[in-house]
Amino acid sequence: MGQGTYRGGRGRRRTRAVLAVLTTAVLGAGACDSGGSAESGGSPSPTPTPVWDTSPESVAAVGDSITRGFDACTVLSDCPEVSWATGDSAEVDSLAVRLLGKQRAAGRSWNHAVTGARMADLAGQVTRAAKHRPELVTVMVGANDACRASTAAMTPVAEFREQFEDAMRTLRAELPKAQVYVSSIPDLKRLWSQGRTSALGKQVWKLGICPSMLGDADAVDAAATSRRATVAQRVEDYNAVLAEVCAADERCRTDGGAVYDYRFGTGQLSHWDWFHPSVDGQARLAAIAYRAVTARES
Q1: Considering the entire predicted model, what is its pTM?
Q2: Confidence of residue 97 (pLDDT cuts 50, 70, 90)
């Protein structure tokens, strides 16, 4: 009996020793799986900081008449207070106000867009905007490159690309860490289909508003149809350029085509010219921009 008891005790001690080794091995593996190592004491690796900040502290806007709020308040006039990007109108709730609050936005947002601007003008606007050292720069430009006297006068796609790349190089030289939000160009063909329902709108268009798309608004013959299709394709090509150039910059993001895809109606068009966004249209642009800027990286 005594000898058997001795062997049983030795067996239990051996079992406990084996369990201790296995426990150490399991705990060591768990430490490695959690991002640390046995030698470093199992400390987890720091979480990398996201490149895109969803809460920038300042906003500068560049672009054309849409960002200036042209014809949204009164005829043939800029109305920057209703700008989707930097306006202070409660009806619009601009991107800057949504990000910063109305009081802070008043001193931390700047609008350097110019009515009538084309892509060729963007680098100059960026240079002026950079003086404020903004953390976010919004870009909406390109409609005027397609809205010309004729389809032949539209900015060639290759030239449009070169001009946008030049503007981005200018921006990076001045603001290497600023974030850039690039809006797609609205669907000009849908604008024609919506605005032509207004007799007044068609009369205003005859004054020379975007003739490449809106000229002879009631004409549906082969030539007119082909002309509008050419403009529509050019806008799609421009939007592809905006997306491609932006994708090459880690601190740039687009709206993913949301502005182009938005199914706006006459309520979102200025009733002064049936071309520019109304106050309601500006509010829709602000909402799209805010969703894009504040979206978390996947």
Answers
A1: 0.83
A2: very high
